[in-house]
Specification:
Strand content: 5-15%
Order of helices and strands: HHEEHH
Shape: extended
Radius of gyration: 21 Å
Oligomer: single chain
Number of helices: 4
Distance between the termini: 31 Å
């Protein structure tokens, strides 16, 4: 029994090391935020045909987390308010793809074998 536990531990450590290596590789090649996203996040004001509105500055009250979410909100603003037609279609495509995954998830959760588990 102890040998199986050690084997599983070594295997899991290998997966963790691979994940850390990939994180370092992707971090080096990461894409920076576009200039319009950064400018919109700093100004905090979105201008539409109907008028302007300001973005939330605080989401959780934790500085770094609020900064992260502000960039995410600004990045999705163009697709949500149809400021950019291409990003609107990209969001539509993403939601259509996510709907298929969600449908499979719901159907798998309804199986008898998944009753009284986290999948249910």
């Amino acid at each position: 029994m102890a040998f199986i536990t050690v084997t599983r531990t070594v295997q899991s450590i290998l997966f963790i090391l691979i994940a850390l290596l990939l994180q370092q590789i992707f971090q080096r090649n990461s894409v920076t935020v576009g200039p319009w996203v950064q400018a919109l996040a700093e100004s905090g004001v979105v201008e539409l045909k109907e008028g302007t509105f300001s973005l939330y500055k605080k989401f959780y009250g934790i500085g770094p987390l609020d900064e992260l979410w502000r960039i995410v909100v600004v990045a999705f603003t163009a697709s949500t308010f149809e400021l950019d037609p291409i990003s609107w279609w990209q969001m539509f495509s993403f939601l259509a793809d996510a709907a298929v995954v969600y449908a499979v998830w719901v159907l798998e959760g309804c199986r008898v074998g998944n009753r009284r588990t986290l999948a249910y």
